[in-house]
Write a structure and sequence with these properties.
One of its GO terms (cellular component) is cytosol. Catalyzes the oxidation of glucose 6-phosphate to 6-phosphogluconolactone. GO terms for molecular function: glucose-6-phosphate dehydrogenase activity; NADP binding. Pathway: Carbohydrate degradation; pentose phosphate pathway; D-ribulose 5-phosphate from D-glucose 6-phosphate (oxidative stage): step 1/3. There is one protein chain. With about 475 residues, the chain is of the alpha/beta class. The chain folds into 2 domains: about 150 residues, Rossmann fold (3-Layer(aba) Sandwich), CATH 3.40.50; about 250 residues, 2-Layer Sandwich (Dihydrodipicolinate Reductase, domain 2). Helix content is about 35%, strand content about 20%. Helix 9 crosses helix 10. The longest helix is centred in the first third of the chain and has 19 residues. It is globular, with a radius of gyration of 24 Å. The structure holds 6-O-phosphono-beta-D-glucopyranose. The site of 6-O-phosphono-beta-D-glucopyranose has 5 residues, from helix 9.
């Protein structure tokens, strides 16, 4: 569906003054607005505990947008914030939802003059999900106000639950309130341009697909390294840890994109089904040794604000997984993520097997392996290492790189931020880049096996050079 044809829409953001909203959502909304990619008629209703008047809230939005950079003129920001309204309350307070319902009804009646679509964004710590779902339902907010036009959708951030059991409970609760088509479970890595390119690259080029299996692939590495620490997010992070924060979701979704079968069509249900099949066939590598389940905590983590002095939360992990199906059996998938790492990079490297023979000079070691790299960020792009004869009289081989960089083609400027894509697709009702309930559950099942193994693993301390 094209945005231009979407009927009036009201965005309700729970936790509008929080970090996620300030850093990603509000900037994404104003960027979409600047690109004319929001519905013509829209409203933004922020919900949070702070006591803001409507004017103060608009000032907060203005300053948040300016603080993110000077991309937008003051005139544009002013026009954007004119669409904003505020409701105060806490997530557990029943009456607050009545106030939201009244605010929405009054906006529909007096300003929009029709029943608008409602998009509820939960930019809040997961412990509040249950309360918000329940109150949304009991206040009648989940009931669309008009026939086909006034849809209601809910966007939920990861982590969805803190283990398999809590995720299942949440799912149960959510499914009594919403239909699956109304639930958008965010994994913003799926919405990154370079992650989306994995499917295009794999299924639109005959070059690699015939080699895409255990016959020709030796191993796959997926890394999500960050140079920075928890950036003041102790309240959220401590007790959650790296595996739940980025492993259960971002890393496993990247794995699913590399390992999944051809969905044959650009169809949300088919793509989600293939991703979930991969996740359901995950297990710990058969050849795994003790070294395959490493967990670590960076030096100084326990001194971070809101972190327990005796915290056992991991800020790093490395595990070796296997996709237990015909295509992938026997191939190790090395999954690694960490904070305070030597550099910030998210990338996937596919190592191909060596050729059986080698036209190498006599006595030379045959280490000639092709490596395909998807650079999710930074320096977004794709590269392939191949071997070529050294120029001149030598018969020696040397590695060369074939490379596609978004930067070179000036495409980088056009790359939408993942959160723009998340919002844009939710407005259009396209669930392709959102996790299904099957995916969430399958990912948790696998993660539970790791957590089980970890019970016997020591937590090592590291200092950048892990
Ligand atoms: C979030 C995690 O989901 O992803 C953060 O909670 C992590 O801990 C972030 O830093 C990484 O996302 P991005 O888009 O900044 O690479």
């Amino acid at each position: 569906m094209e945005i231009a044809t979407v009927s009036p829409t009201t965005f309700v953001i729970f936790g509008v003054t929080g970090d996620l909203s300030k850093q990603r959502l509000i900037p994404a909304l104003v960027d979409l607005y600047a690109k004319d990619l929001l519905p013509k008629e829209f409203r933004l209703v922020g919900f949070s505990r702070g006591a803001y008047t409507a004017e103060e809230f608009r000032k907060f939005l203005y300053e948040t947008i300016v603080a993110k950079g000077h991309k937008h003129s003051s005139d544009r920001i002013t026009r954007f914030i004119e669409h904003a309204h505020y409701c105060q309350g806490t997530f557990e307070e029943k009456d607050a939802y009545i106030r939201i319902a009244e605010k929405l009804a009054s906006l529909d009646e007096k300003e929009i003059k029709q029943c608008s679509n409602k998009l509820f964004y939960l930019a809040v710590p997961p412990i509040y999900y249950g309360a918000i779902f329940d109150h949304l339902a009991s206040s009648g907010l989940t009931i669309p106000c008009g026939g086909v036009d006034g849809w209601t959708r809910v966007l939920v951030e990861k982590p969805f639950g803190k283990d398999l059991e809590t995720a299942q409970e949440l799912e149960k609760r959510l499914s009594t309130l919403f239909q699956e088509e109304q639930i958008f479970r965010i994994d913003h890595y799926l919405a990154k341009e370079t992650a989306q390119n994995i499917l295009a690259f794999r299924f639109s080029n005959i070059l690699f697909e015939p080699l895409w299996s255990n016959k020709c692939i030796e191993k796959v590495e997926i890394n999500l390294h960050e140079q920075f620490g928890i950036q003041g997010r102790g309240v959220f992070y401590d007790g959650v840890g790296a595996l739940r924060d980025v492993g259960q979701n971002h890393i496993l979704q990247m794995l699913a994109l590399v390992a999944m079968e051809d969905p044959k069509e650009l169809n949300a249900a088919l793509i989600r089904r293939e991703r979930s099949r991969v996740l359901a066939s995950l297990k710990l590598s058969q050849s795994a040794t003790q070294d395959s389940f490493r967990r670590g905590q960076y030096a100084g983590y326990r001194d971070e604000e809101h972190v327990a002095k005796d915290s056992e939360t991991e800020t790093y992990f490395r595990i070796i997984a296997e996709v237990d199906n015909e295509r992938w059996r026997g191939v190790p998938w090395v999954l690694e993520a960490g904070k305070k790492m030597p550099e910030t990079k998210a990338e996937i490297q596919v190592y191909f097997k060596k050729t059986e023979t080698c036209l190498c000079p006599p006595g030379a070691e045959h280490h000639h392996q092709n490596v395909l790299t998807f650079r999710i960020q930074p320096n977004e792009g794709i590269s392939i290492t191949f071997w070529a004869k050294k120029p001149g009289f030598s018969t020696e081989l040397e590695p060369q790189v074939l490379s596609f960089n978004y930067k070179d083609s000036l495409l980088e400027q056009q790359l939408p931020d993942a959160y723009e894509r998340v919002l844009y697709d939710c407005i259009r009702g396209d669930q392709t880049l959102f996790a299904s309930t099957e995916e969430v559950e399958a990912a948790w099942r696998f993660v539970m096996t790791i957590m089980e193994q970890w019970k016997n693993e020591p937590l090592m301390e590291y200092d950048r050079n892990i």
